[in-house]
């Protein structure tokens, strides 16, 4: 069983009367890679700063290994931080940048121990042989590794990373995602990572904490967050989504556009209004005669591995991601398996998202999707 290392209990943070964190409850395990994910202003960096000791919560408690640390200053916590701006010492070479914190320790370490720890850390971050390089001669990714080595050489139990990939180009960011996960596993310590980039969060994390408006919206594995979003905000923020209104008729049956679709969800009240999320990759394009619904392709964008296709179902637009091209103007049918339909409780975010769609009463003339194809007639699909 995983051991809890950090716990935020009822943490609230307010600045000049404005609440930016609202009663946060969060448990972080030892040796876990946890990501705080959300848009600008959601409270993720404030949460990180509270953990690091740079800010004290207005109310609530912070526990580290079972001990309350609200009043413990940053330098006395077993935590270190890597910021987006690495703040490297340009007048020092790579070795001395990494060794800087070690030279400040009391009691002082021997030259031999400092050298051994610096060289060990440079090897872990794949900078062996760079000891005497000037930091200004390094690439952005290499400078970031120096900053990480400088933080880790002090052997903290937790490394905090605040948008550390933001200054890198796309290719370097992708490379460093793999590097950060490898370094975390090599060091066998807890990483707490802040980002607004959902791809980074899904690629690296053991646990993702989705935040908005100073509130935790959902906590889970990357798979859980993506496949079973708790509300429309999470569904929209994590990946692409088609979000529509629905009514949960009974377990395993949801009504969309006045028609019934099979799904795998249960536990809702009969006829409970719900939000329904359908991921673009879960929609199959079929012949119109075989489609649950039919519509007209309005836009096609080539994305390399796939096509992004916008389909207009009589005023209601969906995004479909597919390897099969359907040209603009084509009339297509779609099929969705029950496991591709995800049901969410109504929330304050209902009706706010679904960039490609909005409910259209024109669906009323479509056939019941629960009918077998032989029960349908071609005329039902005519626009």
Overview of this structure, please?
This protein has helices spanning 44-52, 94-103, 111-124, 140-152, 170-187, 198-204, 222-227, 232-237, and strands spanning 4-15, 18-29, 33-37, 59-64, 67-68, 79-82, 158-162, 190-195, 207-212, 215-220, 242-250, 253-256, 259-262, 272-278, 283-286, 293-302, 307-313, 316-322, 331-336, 342-345. It is α+β, with helices and mostly antiparallel strands and 383 residues long. It folds into 2 domains: 4-227, Rossmann fold, CATH 3.40.50; 242-373, Beta Barrel (OB fold (Dihydrolipoamide Acetyltransferase, E2P)), CATH 2.40.50. The strands form 4 sheets. A 6-stranded mixed sheet has the order 6-7-8-3-9-10, with helices on both faces. α2 (94-103) packs parallel to α4 (140-152).
Give a topology summary.
Elements: E1 4-15, E2 18-29, E3 33-37, H1 44-52, E4 59-64, E5 67-68, E6 79-82, H2 94-103, H3 111-124, H4 140-152, E7 158-162, H5 170-187, E8 190-195, H6 198-204, E9 207-212, E10 215-220, H7 222-227, H8 232-237, E11 242-250, E12 253-256, E13 259-262, E14 272-278, E15 283-286, E16 293-302, E17 307-313, E18 316-322, E19 331-336, E20 342-345
């Amino acid at each position: 069983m995983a051991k809890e290392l950090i716990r935020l209990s009822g943490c609230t943070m307010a600045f000049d009367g404005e609440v930016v964190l609202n009663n946060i409850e969060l448990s972080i395990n030892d040796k876990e890679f946890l990501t705080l994910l959300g848009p600008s202003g959601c409270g993720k960096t404030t949460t990180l700063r509270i953990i690091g000791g740079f800010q004290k919560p207005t109310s609530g408690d912070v526990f580290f290994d079972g001990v309350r640390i609200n009043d413990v200053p940053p330098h006395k916590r077993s935590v270190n931080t890597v910021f987006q701006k690495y703040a490297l010492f340009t007048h020092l070479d790579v070795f001395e940048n990494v060794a800087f914190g070690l030279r400040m320790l009391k009691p002082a370490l021997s030259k031999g121990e400092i050298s051994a720890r610096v060289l060990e850390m440079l090897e872990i971050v794949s900078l062996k042989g760079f000891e005497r390089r000037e930091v200004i001669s390094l690439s952005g990714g290499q400078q970031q590794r120096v900053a990480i080595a400088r933080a880790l050489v002090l052997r903290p139990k937790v490394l905090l990373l605040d948008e550390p990939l933001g200054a890198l180009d796309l290719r370097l960011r992708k490379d460093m995602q793999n590097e950060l996960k490898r370094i975390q596993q090599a060091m066998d310590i807890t990483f707490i990572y802040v980002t607004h980039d959902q791809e980074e969060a899904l690629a690296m994390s053991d646990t993702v904490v989705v935040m908005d408006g100073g509130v935790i919206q959902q906590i889970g594995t990357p798979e859980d967050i993506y496949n079973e979003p708790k509300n429309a905000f999470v569904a929209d923020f994590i990946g692409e989504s088609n979000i529509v209104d629905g009514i949960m008729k009974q377990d395993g049956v949801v009504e969309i556009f006045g028609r019934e679709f099979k799904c795998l969800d249960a536990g809702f009240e009969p006829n409970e209004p719900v939000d329904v999320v359908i991921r673009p990759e879960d929609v199959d394009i079929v012949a119109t005669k075989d489609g649950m619904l039919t519509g007209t392709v309005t836009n096609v964008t080539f994305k390399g591995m796939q096509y992004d296709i916008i389909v207009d179902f009589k005023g209601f637009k969906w995004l479909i991601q597919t390897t099969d091209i359907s040209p603009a103007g084509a009339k297509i049918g779609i099929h969705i398996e029950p496991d591709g339909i995800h049901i969410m409780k109504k929330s304050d975010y209902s009706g706010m998202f679904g960039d490609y769609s909005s409910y259209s009463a024109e669906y009323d003339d479509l056939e019941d999707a629960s009918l077998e194809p032989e029960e349908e007639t071609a005329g039902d699909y005519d626009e």
